[in-house]
Amino acid sequence: MKCFHFLVFLALALAFSFASADDPSPLQDFCVAIPEPENAVFVNGKFCKNPNLTVAEDFFFPGLNVPGNTGNRVGSNVTLVNVDRIPGLNTLGISLARLDFAPYGGLNPPHIHPRGTEILVVVEGTLYVGFVTSNPNRLFTKVLYPGDVFVFPIGLIHFQFNIAKTNAVAFAGLSSQNPGVITIADAIFGPKPPINPDVLAKAFQLDKDMVEKLQKLFENA
């Protein structure tokens, strides 16, 4: 019996620790986000709409059946449905994304979500996916087929790459109403103002000329 109680306690502790890793739990049924704060309450980064004025459309978004445009330099498109698309997501700690990939080579480049864990399911095509742990860095990868699911822990660098000759489609759930995204290459070589090239040359062990070429490439990306 004591062992059973310990296991229950351990399960509850683990559940609490996971729940604490994403957005705070709401203290009301919902808090539909509104842009204007007139007579509103500020909760979780947004102002709350008067519940008496809330309508079904505040919890609705159409169009995830429509493929995204993959005609860009990386051959992918992410349609994110977060609190900016569905105001009713405010305080609920969840969002959704559709990911479209061009045939072989379509890439969702290495990036992180600073505020959310991602769980991804492939519905079409074949994806090579992976994430890298914090130091000492370890790479976890997997080839995913339709119906396969993979998890990318919060804050870790991860990617998805289409290795098939056909289009690929996946959907992802994220444990935040606004998980955020930092694309590594863009953040390093394309911020405004730019990072001192001497810093990047030293960090990446590259010639300064190469760093400056990369900065020019990404500044207009």
UniProtKB/TrEMBL annotation:
The keyword Manganese applies. Keywords: Apoplast, Disulfide bond, Glycoprotein, Manganese, Metal-binding, Secreted, Signal. Residues 1-21 form the signal peptide. It is found in: Secreted, Extracellular space, Apoplast. Gene3D superfamilies: Jelly Rolls (2.60.120.10). Residues 62-212 form the Cupin type-1 domain. Belongs to the germin family. This is Germin-like protein. It comes from Hevea brasiliensis.
